Amino acid sequence: MALREIAVLLFATGGSFFALSAAVGLVRLPDLYTRAHSASKGDTLGGLLTLTAVAIAFGGGLSTFKTFLLIVFMFLTNPTAVHAIVRAAHDQGIEPWTAEEEP
Description:
Blueprint: H1 3-28, H2 32-58, H3 62-91
């Protein structure tokens, strides 16, 4: 295996791991705020690692540049969107889960 193939495999595996951990967090965590945290961090990092694997696999040229633009777009928009959703939930009066409550 070439070094490039190993890098693609490592980045794709890392991206899949973080995307899976974000999905598990959505199912297992008790309230909107913790679920949003899991989704924003895990999904953003998983997507960035996976798109990095795609950019390495393309090798160079216009396709790699477009993939880089997707990475920048995801890095800027995913956390911003989750912040807006959580702020709207807070403005609506949705209370965070506390340890005294049942999930």
